[in-house]
Amino acid sequence: MLELALMFFVIAIIAGALGAGNVAGLSMAVGKWLVLVFLVLAVVSLLL
């Protein structure tokens, strides 16, 4: 899941450099949510 989030961040950087602001914003938001889900699942798995 973390690899997928990093891929979305790379897509956001490339899209931002090419001037596609909407694509960059959307992929950055998806990447942010994936990182948050990863962190929550990591904490839950450490506690159990």
From TrEMBL:
The keyword Membrane applies. Its main location: membrane. The keyword Nucleotide-binding does not apply. It comes from the Archaea. Keywords: Cell membrane, Membrane, Transmembrane, Transmembrane helix. The chain crosses the membrane at residues 29-47. It is a single-pass membrane protein. It holds the Pfam family DUF1328. It is found in: Cell membrane. One of its GO terms (cellular component) is plasma membrane. Belongs to the UPF0391 family. This is UPF0391 membrane protein ATJ93_0532.
